[in-house]
Amino acid sequence: MAYIGKEPIVGNFQKCDAISVVNGQAAYTLQVSSTNVSPESANHMLVSLNGILQAPTTSFTVSGSTLTFASNLATGDVIDFVMLLGNVLDLGVPSDATVSTAKIVDGAVTSAKLSAGKVLQVLSTVKTDTFSTASETPTFTDVTGLSVSITPSSTSSKILIFVNMYASGGVSGMRHYSRLVRGSTAICVGDSAGSRLQVSAYNVNERTATMNGFPITFLDSPNTTSSTTYKVQVTAETADTIYINRSGLDSNADTYARTASTITVMEVAG
Predict the structure, then answer these.
(1) Is the pLDDT of residue 10 over 70?
(2) DSSP-based three-state secondary structure for 51
(3) pTM of the predicted structure, to 2 decimals
(4) How many whole angstroms separate alpha carbon 199 and alpha carbon 203?
(5) Domain spans of the chain, in order of start
(6) How far apart are CA 143 and CA 77, in angstroms?
(7) Which of 11, 134, 220, 268 has its CA 20 to 30 A from that of 80?
(8) Beta-carbon count within 10 A of 260 CB
(9) Cα(233)–Cα(198) distance, rounded to whole angstroms?
(10) pLDDT attached to residue 11
């Protein structure tokens, strides 16, 4: 739509509740939906009395939510309507469907304004090289390069973690274990039960020519806004070596493979 002159500005226009009782006084309370409202000033109002628009500051004034006419109204006088125009310098509460995406400052919508379950940020690390360790149970070793750090925007946020790792061993039939760690604390592990290891994933390496997947999915509640690191640790049964992203045999032939392992974190609004 084209305009001659300045384009009209959509403001916080409100029509006050009807004032049906005119009781011979000058002062009346302004309400919208039965709640008191306070206009910016008399100059931000349209007031009609007996079908005539009144001059602000001379015919009426306003203080807080009280509208005061220059003289007492008489029986039979009718306050037709009172319109509040908002503040021409401060928009106040915008009218419905008037704020476009372009009008929102980058970064202005914080996690506190988003409903629970919304994804706020996603970070991921991909490990394409190989790794090996002869670490034996019950000692766990960090998998080099398979970690990711995230700084939650709110203490109520949850962190959804996905791990997709492939491993093999140097001895057939040996057991391999992995666990998810936040900082230095193991998370997403089974309950303590005697001498059994508390782990996130567990596999038996049937053949040195094959690899097994170690998938982990966990929704964590770190309760912090500090940088938090998630990582993967592994260990193997006694006298075995665990290999990441390659088979134990790892022959140089097109029937063998190298894989990639990943760890991805998502901050979810709490």
Answers:
(1) no
(2) coil
(3) 0.64
(4) 11
(5) 14-84, 115-250+257-268
(6) 84
(7) 11
(8) 12
(9) 12
(10) 56
Q: Which residue shows structure tokens 């790892």?
A: 250
Q: How far apart are CA 225 and CA 100, in angstroms?
A: 30
- Is 115-250+257-268 a domain of CATH 2.60.120.1340? yes
**Residue 104: band (very low, low, confident or very high) from pLDDT cuts 50, 70, 90:** confident
Task: Name the amino acid, one letter, at 192.
Answer: S
> What distance in Å separates the CA atoms of residue 268 and residue 77, rounded to the nearest whole number?
59
CA distance 40 to 65: 10
The CA distance from 242 to 134, in Å, is 6
Say which residue the tokens 């960090």 belong to. Answer: 142
6: pLDDT confidence band, cut at 50, 70 and 90? very low
Structure tokens that stand for 220 in this block: 């964590």
Q: How crowded is the C-beta side of 192, counted as CA atoms within 13 Å? A: 2
Residue 178: CB atoms within 10 Å: 25
Instruction: Determine the residue type at 222.
Output: P
CA distance 220 to 230: 10
Question: What's the token pair of residue 65?
Answer: 């939510």
Token digits of residue 87? 């503040």
Helix or strand holding residue 269 (H, E): none
Distance CA 151, CA 159 (A): 10
Mean pLDDT, all residues of the chain:
90
Q: 63 Cβ partners below 8 Å, 6+ apart?
A: none
Query: Quick check: 38 and 24 in contact, CB under 8 A?
Result: no
